[in-house]
Write a structure and sequence with these properties.
Strand 5 and strand 6 (58-60) form a beta hairpin. It is globular, with a radius of gyration of 13 Å. The chain is mostly beta strands and 123 residues long. Strands 2, 4, 5, 6, 9, 10 and 11 form a seven-stranded mixed β-sheet that branches. It is built from no helices and eleven strands.
Length: 123
């Protein structure tokens, strides 16, 4: 089993930055991909970004490309989501997810999920 714990959410003004963290523990050999998804009230879960656990490959959703950066601290088994130039439309619960195979943008492909962290972008 793999456990994922998100942190770093909060209230931020438009144009500002926030960094989310996803701490992974357990059977980390089961992990090939770690991704961030988000879900706003009344909307479907949306792919944000993904990286391959043991490689440099990254993938981003169109709505965050150029503003968000996903990265990994391999010494700490933590994946970060650096979010810059935040907009009110970025308001959502952000989830960390992991799977043991190919990179995909579809939430239903991911086996492991964190509990989520709320990000609110507002004046």
């Amino acid at each position: 089993q793999v456990q994922l714990v998100e942190s770093g959410g909060g209230l931020v003004q438009p144009g500002n930055s926030l960094r989310l963290s996803c701490a992974a523990s357990g059977r980390l050999l089961n992990i090939a991909v770690v991704a961030w998804f988000r879900q706003a009230p009344g909307k479907e879960r949306e792919f944000v970004a993904a990286l391959r656990w043991a490689e440099t490959f990254t993938l981003y959703g169109d709505s965050v490309k150029g503003r968000f950066t996903i990265s990994r601290d391999s010494a700490k088994d933590v994946v970060y989501l650096q979010m810059n130039s935040l907009k009110p439309d970025d308001t959502a619960v952000y989830y960390c997810a992991a799977r043991g195979s190919l990179t995909t943008i579809y939430a239903y492909n991911y086996n492991y999920w964190g509990q989520g962290t709320q990000v609110t972008v507002s004046l």
